[in-house]
Amino acid sequence: MRVWIAGVDGYLGWALAQRLASRGHEVAGADNYFRRAWVEEMGAWSAIPVAPMSERLEAFRERFGKSMPFWEGDLRDYGFVERIVREFRPEAIVHLAECPSAPYSAIDVDHAVFVQTNNLTTTFHLLFAMKAHAPDAHLIKLGTMGEYGTPNLDIPEGFFEVEFRGRKDRLPFPRQAGSWYHWSKVHGSNNVMFACKLWGLAATDIMQGIVFGAYPDALNEDGRLSTRLDFDQAFGTIVNRFCCQAVAGHPLTLYGSGRQQRGFIPLPDSMQCLTLAVENPPEPGQYRVLNQFQNVYRLADWAHKVASVADEFGLKPDIRHVDNPRMEMEDHHYRPEHDALFRLGYEPTRDIDPVLRSMIAALLPHADRIRRKREALLPDIRWDGRRSRAEYR
Ligand code: USQ
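Above: the input record for the complex with sulfoquinovose-uridine-C1,5'-diphosphate. Below: its predicted structure, written as tokens.
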């Protein structure tokens, strides 16, 4: 299939390009390197060095024996999006060109507005370009498990049956996001759902949990093919941060009690699931929702798992409960469904320790690189708007 990955330079995009190419798909990409700039703005860099795009493309060609068409530019420019869809004629479009950070959207009004306008505009442009030039293509849009929040009910995959005053209907499950970023994903989901109804487009909305892990697979001996791995407070997700903290000799920063529960997924599983979604498109006009995570864990479980695997490497990280900079429930029910991907053939990683082990092994040569940006390991963006690192030192 011809698959266009919007946001191919990011953590998931660069890994997915390789996964799809290894399965014989024709892959194209676009990016404007926003992710590199945001992480720099946070005073950090990727723990695992990332090569410039020209080198990445060269390594890709050497590894897979064919070039990846690549467009550098901003998806907020509709002409740019239209041009790619017209020239490449994708059968599937994977939309990873959004700003993925809750803390980044909590910095101030400019960042909140940027995250929402960027995420909504890029999605709109893809929908309109598909309608105009590729109405039979399949949009795979990255949503998030965080759209649902933590309701005191089990969470279905997108829709549920409701009975109210004697009548029944199948309705979207209520969304109760916990950050301006997560709300941007809710608004994007609504727009995609409506475009499917209005224009008969086919879309899959992936409600993905928190991804963790280094490298798409073990084959990447060529550093130019490595995907990024962030550790700063805004773009580093919890498990990746814990592994970087352990390697850098920094305490693991557990926010609040650590009893919060979330769905998590290793990077290779995320690649497997996105590939399943690409290769098994929904019917025209169908808006399909997939809850994408391997399992539900409590945050404190990760602190203990990472500390125990780190111990095998002679590292002895402390676990530090810090004042929670976010506004989130810490004691709550959490039982989301995730059956649809299993029906498509998802084979989850059963044993998580090897994923943590290979991540820590990949990070160890870069311990100093992480230490040089150690300030970025501490949070100072708070949901209540006060910004200070003092209490986290
Ligand atoms: N947390 C810590 N310590 C840290 C960092 C985070 O305890 O050092 C806690 C947070 O308070 C939160 C949980 O870990 O309860 C997850 O935080 P996170 O930063 O790892 O992830 P989150 O903000 O939820 O967002 C990430 C991705 C986002 C994706 C989402 C999936 O950045 O793009 O949408 O995971 S989900 O969480 O299911 O909504």
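Notes for the reader.
The pocket of sulfoquinovose-uridine-C1,5'-diphosphate is lined by residues 100-102, 144-146, 208-210, 237-238, 241, 253-255, 260, 262-263, 299, 326, 328 (CB under 6 Å).
The longest helix spans residues 109-133.
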